[in-house]
Design goal:
Elements (H helix, E strand, L loop, with lengths): L2 H14 L2 E3 L5 E3 L28 H11 L9 H11 L6
Antiparallel strand pairs: 1-2
Helix pairs in contact: 2-3
Length: 94
């Protein structure tokens, strides 16, 4: 593969990644407006500190939440962990 081919391939990869080369040779991220067919990112779900409607034992829910709180950043889905601990502690579900 020649240097010219390699340069074209690199430019293509960077363009796909959303980067363009400026006049001075620096790279910058190009933002574009959303287009039809783009995948909509899932909105960040707000989870209140209160127990959900289906948790019938709010004291157990709070205890499970407080147990997970120090390790919150270690989990991708911390609320799923809280739910699991809640059920293991004997919490009832509606």
């Amino acid at each position: 593969m020649g240097l010219r081919t390699l340069g074209i391939a690199m430019s293509t990869v960077l363009a796909i990644a959303g980067l363009t080369r400026g006049q001075r040779g620096t790279w910058s991220l190009v933002t574009r407006s959303r287009q039809w067919g783009d995948i909509e990112p899932e909105p960040e779900l707000e989870r209140p500190d209160n127990p959900p409607e289906w948790a019938l034992d709010p004291d157990i829910w709070e205890h499970a939440r407080d147990t997970v709180a120090p390790h919150w950043s270690n989990y991708e889905e911390p609320w799923a962990v809280v739910t699991h601990i809640y059920e293991r502690m004997g919490g009832r579900v509606a």
